[in-house]
Amino acid sequence: MTDIKERLGYIKNLTREQFEALLYITQRLNNEVYEDAIIIETLDWVINVVNAERVVFAKYDPNAGNFSLIASRNINKDITNKLEDFSTGILRHVLDKKEPVLFHDVQNDPGFSQFASVLIKKIRSLIGVPILKDKEVWGVILADSQTDRREFTESNLIFLNFFANLVSLALDKAIKIRELADENILLKYQFEEFNRVPDMVGGSKAMRELSKLIYRVAASDATVLILGESGTGKDVAAHSIHKLSTRKDHPYLAQFCGSIPDSLLESELFGYKKGAFTGANADKKGLLEASDNGTFFLDEIADISSALQAKLLRVLENKEIIRLGDTQSRKINVRIIAATNKDLTQLVKSGAFREDLFYRLNVFPLRIPPLRERRDDIALLAEHFLGRLGSSNLKFHRAALSKLENFHWPGNIRQLLNVIQRAVILCDGEKIEEEHIILEENAGEMKFDGTLREFEKQILLKRLDEHDGNRTQTAVSLGVSVRWVQLKLKEMGIN
Ligand SMILES: Nc1ncnc2c1ncn2[C@@H]1O[C@H](COP(=O)(O)OP(=O)(O)O)[C@@H](O)[C@H]1O
Ligand SMILES: [Mg+2]
Fold first, then answer.
1. What are the pLDDT digits (tens) for 65-101?
2. 231 alpha carbon to ligand 2 midpoint, in Å?
3. β-pair partners for 132
C-alpha cells in the first residue's frame, strides 16, 4: 500500500462500518490530547471493528530494544492481560516490517506455531499494526482471535492501516502538546508571581521559600537568627523583616559585633551613666534603648565575649537593660534579630558560645542559601545591579551571563556586585562581554569581616595547606620567619 491511487482503491473495499469508524476516529482523535486516552480508545475501536478478542498496545523502546505494555483490552473490556500473554515474535515481526501484518490460521503456520503464547491461547488470527512516529516504530497494536471466532479479513488490514496512520498523527500531536505543557509548567513556575520581599531580588525556589519564611516571621514578634555565608544577604533579610513587621515605623538599628573591643561594644549597646569610665562625661543611651519599640540587629553575634553574652541573655530574658555604671534597670521593647556566618552549634559544643543564649536566639532560624545554591537568581541579580549602578542601558552578552552563572561565588552576592561593578567600568560598548567579567577565586575571602587574629589564622592555615604542611615554605611565602610560624601555631594550639 504505497501510492495514493492504490490506497484509494483499497478504501473501496472497506465496509460501511469501517468507514464510519474511521470518520468517528478522525473526529475523536482530533479532540483528544491525552496519550493514554487515545491509546485506550484506540484499543476499543480495534476490538469492535476487526472483531478481535484481545488487543494490546505495546510501546517500543529503541534504546533497550524491547517492548513494554501500555494498555491492553479484552472483548469484555477488562484489562487483565500482561505483555507475556501476547506473542513478542509477532511484535518484532511488525517492528521489522513497519507495516500492518495479518495472519490467518496461525496454528498451522510453522512460522508462528512455534510461539508458545500462540499455542497456549489457541490463537487463530493475528493482526499487527505499527504506530509510526518520525518514520520509526513508536509502538505496535496487536490484536488476536481464537479458534471459535471468525478470521480477520483483508479489509480489516486496510482499515487498520488507515487507522494506524491516524493514530500516529494524533499521538504525535498529543506527545508534542504534552511536551509543550511540561515546558509551560516550568516557565510558569519560573515567572509565577510570588510574594516578593521588596529588597530581595531572586525567583529561585530557594528564594521563594526564603521569602515565604521572611513574611511569616515578620508577622510575628519572634527573635530571629539569620544564618548564612558572608555576602548572602543577611543584612538585607534582617532589615526586610523589620520593614515588613508592625514595628516598621519605629527605629531599626544595627550593630556589627565582629572586630570591636568588648568595652566599646558594651557601651554602644547598653549606654552608660556619666562617670562610668574616663571620658563618660554625660549619660548616654545605648543602641538597644534607642531602638525601643523597633528592631535591633546584632550582626556577627558569634564573636562577642562571654561577659557580653551573659548581658545579652538578660536582655532577651527580662527585656531590660542596665546602662554601664548605672544601678537602675530600664524596660525595653525591642525585637532582636541576630546573624552569623559561623556554625553556632559548633561554637556551643566547644564552649565558645553560651548554650542558653543560643536557644534564646535560635527561636526562628533563617538560613540564607549561598549564591551557588540558587544559580537561577544570578542573571536576575546581575541585571538588578546594573540598575543599581546606574547602568541599566548596558546589556549582558549571553556568554558573559554564562560565565557568571557557572562561577561558584565564594563571596556570594556581595562578590557578584563587585564583579558587575568592575565589568561596568571595563565595558566601553553597549554589551558586557565575557572578557569584562573578571572572577577572583579569593574575592570572597578579601571581604573577610572577622578579627585580625582570625584573619591571620585563616591565612596561615591556608598557606600551610597549600604547602603540604611545610613550615619553611609557608614562612617564605608569607614573608615571615619559620620561628614566627611555629610560634603562631603553638599559640593556636596546633601541632
Ligand atoms: N536578594 C538580594 N537582592 C539584591 N541584593 C542583594 C540581595 N542579597 C544581598 N544583596 C546585596 O548584596 C550585598 C551583600 O548583602 P549583605 O546583606 O550585606 O550580606 P551579608 O550580611 O550576608 O554579608 C549587599 O550589597 C546587598 O544589598
Ligand atoms: Mg552582613
1. 888 887 777 776 655 667 777 777 888 888 998 888 8
2. 7
3. 137
How many C-beta atoms surround the C-beta of residue 194 within 10 A? Answer: 13
Quick check: 145 and 51 in contact, CB under 8 A?
Answer: yes
Give mean pLDDT, residues 316-340. Answer: 95
Q: Can you give the CATH number for the domain in which 468 is found?
A: 1.10.10
Return the DSSP state at 486. H
Pocket of ligand 1 (CB under 6 A): 200-202, 228, 230-236, 381, 384, 413-414, 417
Query: Does 457 lie in the same domain as 310?
Result: no
Domain housing 274: 205-367
Give me the pLDDT at residue 1, please: 42
DSSP structural state of residue 232: S
* Structural domains counted in the chain: 4
Check whether residue 36 and residue 91 sit in a common domain: yes
Of the residues 214, 225, 226, 235, which should be mutated to test ligand 1's pocket, given the most ligand atoms within 8 Å of the CB?
A: 235
In angstroms, what is the span from residue 49 Cα to ligand 1's centroid?
68
**DSSP-based three-state secondary structure for 363:** coil
pLDDT value at position 436?
94
- What is the CATH classification number for the domain harbouring 36? 3.30.450.40
278-288: b or e for each residue (b if 16 or more CB lie within 10 Å)? eebeeebebbb
Phi, psi angle pair for 327, to nearest 5°: -110, -25
Span from the CA of 129 to the centroid of ligand 1 (angstroms) = 62
DSSP 96-161: HH-S-EEES-GGG-HHHHTSHHHHHTTEEEEEEEEEEETTEEEEEEEEEEETTSPPPPHHHHHHHH
Question: Which residue matches cell numbers 508577622?
Answer: 219
* pLDDT tens track for 273-303: 999 888 889 999 999 999 999 999 999 999 8
Grid coordinates of 343: 556554625
CATH of the domain at 305: 3.40.50.300
Q: What is the average pLDDT value for the chain, to the nearest integer?
A: 84
pTM of the model: 0.57
Q: Which amino acid appears at position 211 of this protein?
A: S
Per-residue DSSP letter, 376: G
Ligand found nearest the CA of 380: 1
What is the residue type of 363? V
